[in-house]
Structures are given as C-alpha cells and as structure tokens.
UniProtKB/TrEMBL annotation, chain A:
Pfam families according to UniProt: FeS_assembly_P (PF01883)
Protein name as annotated: DUF59 domain-containing protein
Domain MIP18 family-like: 16-84
InterPro entries: Fe-S_Maturation_MIP18, FSCA_dom_sf, MIP18-like
Superkingdom as given in the UniProt entry: Bacteria
Automatic annotation (TrEMBL), chain B:
Organism: Chitinophaga tropicalis
InterPro entries xref list: Cyt_c_oxase-like_su1_sf (IPR036927)
Sorted UniProt keywords: Membrane, Transmembrane, Transmembrane helix
Top-rank lineage group of the source organism: Bacteria
Record bears the keyword Membrane: yes
Lineage: Bacteria, Pseudomonadati, Bacteroidota, Chitinophagia, Chitinophagales
Protein's name in the database: Cbb3-type cytochrome c oxidase subunit I
TM region positions: 12-37, 49-73, 85-108, 114-136, 148-167, 187-207, 219-236, 242-261, 282-299, 305-323, 361-379, 385-408
Length: 110, 411
C-alpha cells in the first residue's frame, strides 16, 4: 500500500502505518504492513478510519487476533476515531505482496 | 468489521482437555511399553499388546486428533464449529471409554466393562461425526479436504462399531467368521479409514499453509480421496483374501497422490527454513512409507505384524502428533491469553510459549526411541526392547513438560 504525498490525510495515514508495524501475524511473526495485508486506509469519513485488509489464509484461526490487533493499534493512536475493518479475499493475498523487509524476515527464497 | 466469517476459534474447553489427556495417555503408553517390553517380540493378539494398542490409538492418537480437529474444522470448512459443548461431551465419553477398555484388555477381562468401554468409544465417534457433519454441512465450498474430514469420521464410526462387535464376541461368541480376521478389518478401517483420511485432509490444508507454498494440482487430492476409499471399501467387503493386496495397492496409489500433492506444495514453498515441528512431519511420512512397504510381510503374523503396527502408531501417527502439537497448541493458548492485547502492548510470540531446546531434545530422543524399538522387535532382543521403552518414557516426559508449560502459561 502506498500513500501519495498529495493525499489530504497523508500525515494521519503515515501515522497509522507507523502503528500498524506493531501488529504482528502470530503465525508468520511478521507485521501486517510488511506482509502486505493492508490494502487500503480510508479516512474520508469524519471520525472514522476504514481499513480494507486481508489475511494470509482465509479462515485462519489467528484471523481474529490480527484484525483485533489492527483495531487496537489504531484506536490507541487515534483515540477520537472509530476503526472499521473490511476484510476481503479479493484480491487474494500472495507472496508478491510482501515488502523486501517481509521477505527478509521470512527468509524467503529469491 | 465486515460480515465475512473469519471462523472464530472454538471455545478452549472444546480443545484443551484433549491435548492434556492425550499427553497423559502418551506417558501411560510409554510406561505400559516399559512394563511389557518382553511381549513386543511375540504375536499381536496378546492382552497387554491389545491394551497398549488401544491406549495408543484411542488415548493418544484419537484423543489429540479430536482436539486438533475441533480447532481446525473451522479452518477447513470455513465455518464456526457447530457445537463446543458437544465437543466437550465427546471428550468425556471417549476418556471414560478408554479408561474402561484399556484395563479390560490388560487383564483380559471380557464382559460388561469391556463392552461398556467399547460402546462409549462408539458414542464419542458418533458425537464427533455429528459435529463434523454439522460444521461442514453449512459450508458452500466443496473441497477434497472437507470430504476427507467427513469420510474419516465415518470410518471412525465403522471402526468403533466393529470393535464393539468384537468386544461382545469375546464374551458371547456369535460371529461366524474367525475373530482375528474381523480384527484385521477393524484395525485397517482404523488405520486407512480414520487415521489416514484425517491426516490426508488436514495435512493438505495445513502443510502448504505452514510452508507458504501451494499446489494447483487439486485433482491429485480428489483422486487420492477416491482411491483411498475405493480400496478400503473393497477390502472391507471382500475381507482378508489374496485380493486384499490389490485393494492395498489402490490405497497406496491414493497415498502416493496425496504425497505428490504435498510435494508440489513443498516444491513451490517460499519459506526456506523447515522448523522442528515440520521436520517431525517429514519423519512421519518416512515411517508411513516404510509401513506401506511392509504390507506384504504382514501377511505372516508375528514380529512383522508388530513392527508394522509400531511403524504406523509410534512412527507415522506419533511423529505427526509430536510435531503438530507445537504448531497448534501454542497458538490456541496465545489466542486465549494475548489476542485482545495484540497491537496494544508487546506480546510474546506463540513459539515462545514452549521450550525450543526441549523440543529439540524430544525430536532426538523420539528418533532414538523408535529406531531402538524397531531393532528390538526385529531381533527379538529383550534388553534392546527394554532400553527402547525407557527412551520412550524420556520422550513422553519431555513432551509432557512442554505441553504443560504451554497449557499453564501465565501472562
């Protein structure tokens, strides 16, 4: 996920990404940003953050822990805002969504 | 949150009792092996061996497979578990059944206690089947993995039903055919129906997930499902005749299709490192292949029959459990203790909930225990068998320590 510098919410979105680095997928031991699980951050609605995200495996038993982690992290960073999470399997997550850091942490084959 | 079902994990009481009880039965099984090491070189139809086999298949294998299945069914069926209270009931009934059945075999006390034990095991199998069908039934997507889960549960009911008939027959003989022939059908319905099909279904989902690999060859799994079931159905219908070798070949072809699917996922994996729990799994496949190679020798009873059973129960099944416990249990506990804290504060990782050096030790002692036991069975050397049983106790103790460390983990 990239944020344009001309985005009116650039500062808040950068802050959101910063805190989402703290949310770890407990199975893969990598944060949700480096895993590429976060597809979109929408802050257009006043007092609301809408996160469109996926999971590395649909119906993973850790899914709730990950979405809860995203919610917790954003609620703490933006106390006045409500967080809404939209889970999607389209497009499905695959390894190409990993950042270089994510690949390094997973010791992925080149 | 969107209304997509992310399959909430079932209640802990539906899962944890199975892990704790299985760990206890694994230790008990090792102690029983130690006490009766001398019997391992003989015929499998020996009261003590029957007690050991039922402790292994029900107390150890089936017990933990129930627990893991209740945790993983939502993943496979993409739906919440139908009933956690029903899962707990199946644990109570299964535990009670084994506690009656195993001593009955040990002291060869045929009659009401053994029959009641068999009936309770059958009841637990029916509860498991009902929960599986209700969980899988409301799922729209067809997957071979889901079919394997249901067929495995059906085969467990068949296995337990035949077992109950055999228990009745020991006290009130009514079967027209040889008891041992029916016993072989009972054993193979359990091995190739219950254990094989369940392991096939679950591993086809989990192994690609753990390795970050995937196979597009879904047809291999469908073929595996057809071949494994066709072979077993023909075997059950025709009995232990010379044609059984052909039926065995069908099942073996089904195993090969499944392993090819897993190999394809393994080859396409992006994660280089294979952790210790996955190494246990790799070892389990070697034991399965060795036991398959042994099938022609099983025709002749005696030590080869015992070796075949050992490779299946203490090789294939046990290696899978010893590894997969540490791929599931820490996550279950972590979910309970830390899920709500994720993203708020620094939390330990699930793998930090157990001792990795102890797991490494367990892996080494397990390999040594299995090799020594197989050597003892082949050579019929009493001291070797006794040493092997001692190493099994060490393995079981190290497993128990780690399992208890996870279950009683405090924040």
């Amino acid at each position: 996920m990239t944020i344009s510098i001309s985005d009116p919410h650039f500062e808040d979105k950068t802050k959101a990404i910063e805190v989402l680095y703290q949310v770890i997928d407990p199975e893969l031991f990598v944060n949700v940003i480096d895993l590429g699980l976060i597809y979109d951050l929408n802050m257009e609605t006043e007092g609301k953050i809408i996160v469109t995200m996926t999971l590395s495996t649909p119906h993973c038993p850790m899914g709730e822990a990950i979405t809860m982690g995203v919610e917790n992290a954003l609620s703490a960073a933006f106390p006045g805002k409500e967080t809404e999470i939209i889970l999607t399997w389209e497009p499905a997550w695959d390894f190409t969504r990993l950042t270089e850091e994510g690949k390094r942490q997973l010791d992925i084959m080149s | 949150m969107s209304n997509i079902n992310i399959a909430k994990a079932p209640e802990n009481y539906a899962v944890l009792p199975f892990y704790a009880t299985a760990a206890f039965f694994f230790l008990l099984l090792s102690l029983l092996l130690f006490i009766s090491a001398g019997e391992l070189g003989g015929h499998y139809f020996h009261p003590r061996l029957l007690a050991i086999v039922h402790t292994a298949t029900l107390g150890w294998g089936t017990m933990i497979i129930y627990g893991a299945s209740y945790e993983l069914l939502p993943v496979l069926c993409e739906n919440d578990l139908y009933s956690s209270p029903l899962a707990l009931c199946s644990w109570m009934v299964l535990t009670a059944g084994i506690l009656l059945l195993a001593p009955s075999f040990w002291f060869f006390s045929t009659g009401p206690v053994m029959i009641t034990g068999g009936a309770l095991v059958l009841l637990s199998a029916l509860l498991f089947l009902f929960n599986t069908i209700r969980t899988a039934g409301s799922c729209r997507a067809y997957t071979a993995q889901k079919c394997f889960m249901i067929s495995a549960a059906v085969w467990l009911v068949i296995t337990a039903s035949i077992g109950l008939l055999l228990a009745v027959n020991l006290r009130y003989p009514f079967l027209q055919v040889n008891h041992l022939q029916i016993l072989k059908l009972h054993a193979h319905a359990g091995i190739a129906g219950w254990f094989l099909q369940l392991v096939t279904g679950v591993s086809a989902k989990l192994i690609p997930m753990f390795l970050l690999g995937k196979s597009t060859k879904k047809g291999l799994l469908t073929t595996a499902f057809i071949l494994q079931n066709a072979g077993l159905l023909l075997f059950m219908a025709d009995g232990f005749t010379i044609r059984a070798l052909f039926y065995g070949l069908l099942i073996i072809a089904g195993i090969i299709c499944w392993l090819c699917y897993l190999y394809d996922a393994f080859r396409s994996r992006v994660r280089k490192a294979i952790d210790l729990p996955m190494q246990h799994t790799a070892l389990s496949f070697i034991c399965l292949l060795l036991s398959v190679i042994m099938i022609p020798f099983v025709w002749h009873d005696g030590k080869w029959g015992v070796l075949y059973g050992t490779l299946i129960l203490l090789g294939w099944i046990t290696a899978i459990i010893l590894g997969k416990t540490f791929k599931t249990l820490p996550f279950i506990i972590w979910n309970q203790r830390y899920k709500h804290l994720n993203g708020k504060v620094n939390v330990p990782l699930p793998k930090q909930l157990y001792s990795s050096p102890l797991l490494k030790f367990q892996y080494g002692s397990y390999i040594l225990a299995l090799l020594t036991l197989c050597t003892g069975i082949i050579t019929r050397h009493h001291l070797t068998l006794q040493i092997a049983a001692g190493i099994w106790i060490v393995t079981a103790l190290s497993y128990n320590v780690n399992v208890l460390k996870i279950i009683f983990h405090k924040r």
